[in-house]
Amino acid sequence: MLLAAGFGTRLRPMTYNIPKCLVTIKGKPLLEIWLERLTHAGIDNFLINTHYLPEKVVDYINTSKYSAQVCLVYEDNLRGTAGTLLNNLSFFKGEDGLFIHADNYCLADFIAFQNAHAMRPKDCLLTMMTFRSDNPSSCGVVELDERGVVIGFYEKIINPPTNLANGAVYIFSAEFLNLYSEKFNLATDFSTEILGLLVGKIYSYETTEVFLDIGTPESYAKANSNFG
Fold first, then answer.
1. Domain 2-223 is found in CATH 3.40.50.300
2. Domain layout of the chain by residue ranges
3. 0.85 cut: is pTM over it?
């Protein structure tokens, strides 16, 4: 599941006429980068939610080589990350699945990510992708125990104790998805309302490849430079 419904307000005026998921990185739409890399890792079915300028996402998908692999879901009213997951649980068909904030430029190894999830401690319900941030006070950062299990969260605080940031890219176990509608049916935001309740149940995978939030003109320019 690729979350792609946001307004991209920090990238205005660029995003007045194009949704953030279709801004280009080195000539290629961000959404295409995600679909290309995930497909290469053996993932072949995608659900993408839309809201802002949805017709442009529809046009892009319908004319892309990924059209047969993608289910587009339009949200008339934004449901929030947790609400979108709740409303589309059936997409996962009782299996493990990825849940991705698709507004990042990410060159992670998704095969290695899936392998880490397969080897996670038995008591962990999901696996979180993490990365080292140059500006951790602008991120949600995590602390880990010796097994790589998340034991602490710090959301955009001054002088955070670590620079290991939550990439908002997850693999959910079937067990977690099966209990989700019962435990979290009132939540709207996954990061702020749910993650904190799962301390000790989240395994982590740190990517050392490029991982960059392109939400500001400065970071967008960095992604389009020789960085990565």
1. no
2. 2-223
3. yes
Q: Please list the pLDDT of the chain residue by residue as tens digits (228 residues).
A: 999 998 878 878 878 999 999 999 999 999 999 999 999 999 999 999 999 999 999 999 999 999 999 999 999 988 999 999 999 999 999 999 999 999 899 999 999 999 999 999 999 999 999 999 988 888 889 999 999 999 999 988 888 899 999 999 999 999 999 999 999 999 999 999 999 999 999 999 999 999 998 888 888 888 898 655
Structure tokens at 25: 């990185």
* Sequential DSSP letters for 128-187: EEEEE-S-GGGSEEEEE-TTSBEEEEEES-SS-S--EEEEEEEEE-HHHHHHHHHHSTT-
Per the listing, tokens 């941030």 go with: 133
The count of residues in the chain is 228
To which residue do tokens 């996402």 refer? 57
